[in-house]
Amino acid sequence: MTPARRRPLVAGNWKMHTTPQSGVELARAIVRAGPPDGVDLVLCPPAIAVTDVARAVVGTTVRVGAQNMHWLDAGAFTGEISASMLAGVAEVVIVGHSERRGDFGETDEMVNRKLRAALAAGLTPIVCVGETESVRDAGGARALITAQVQAALEGVDSEAAGPLVMAYEPVWAIGTGRTASPEQAAEAIGWAREALGHALDAAAAERTRVLYGGSVSPANARELLAQDGVDGALVGGASLKADDFIAIARSAVP
Ligand code: 13P
């Protein structure tokens, strides 16, 4: 269970789905489906839809985030967007998703630069960590998660890290329908929180929300979110259906 002092957060990572128009329709359907009180709800559409989706949820409790950003403010970086471009439009940004690390070669150092740029721009970063199946099978999950958390937070102090959110997303559970068991999720989130304590301090470890992501669905959300230390969910596929996403959010109500 999430302690009362950590408010649950459920974020939808729409990945490369939706146009600006269909994204607005999805956001409106989510608002109509009734975001529950007591849970922070965040929608992360593709970059091209962020502005329209943000406009569509003005006046509601729903917040909007991006899925990625560059660490520099401006420059000759074709195809990239910066934290300062996002800052007027979105409040949140996902950093270091395993699809960015695996498919686009994002290193721990890039994740660290992005995290620092996001915090400096006043955005709430959701920093993703998590092991592949082969790393887990070899017994290396704890060491990898610890190293990823430490590297992401290099040079960041507890105060600067204020709004930081982390997400534990085991790569083998993403888009596979194979969810981590509630015990596996809670254990790994415990490792991530311990690493947060070492990289920052005990207060930061205590206040930072750590989400679980990987094949979260209305069917498994309640059990996952009932675990100690699991402060919410980062949802992929099921976030593209308004009713499923809201059902997951309801499971997070304390
Ligand atoms: P799925 O929920 O589709 O497994 O995706 C999880 C994820 O990668 C969220 O960032």
The low-confidence parts are none
**Portion in helices:** 40-55%
How is the main sheet built?
A: 8 strands, parallel, barrel
Ligands and ions found: 1,3-dihydroxyacetonephosphate
Shape label: globular
Q: What fraction of residues sit in β-strands?
A: 5-15%
Arrangement of strands in the largest sheet: 1-2-3-4-5-6-7-8
Number of strands: 8
Order of helices and strands: EHEHEHEHHEHHEHHEHEH
Q: Please give the count of helices.
A: 11
End-to-end Cα distance: 7 Å
Walk me through the structure.
With 254 residues, the protein is α/β, with parallel strands linked by helices. It is 41% helix and 15% strand. The chain has an eight-stranded parallel barrel, surrounded by five helices. Helix 1 links the parallel strand 1 (9-13) and strand 2 (40-44). Helix 1 crosses helix 11 (242-251) and helix 7 crosses helix 8 (182-199). It is globular. The N and C termini lie close together (7 Å). It binds 1,3-dihydroxyacetonephosphate. The site of 1,3-dihydroxyacetonephosphate has 14 residues, from strand 8.
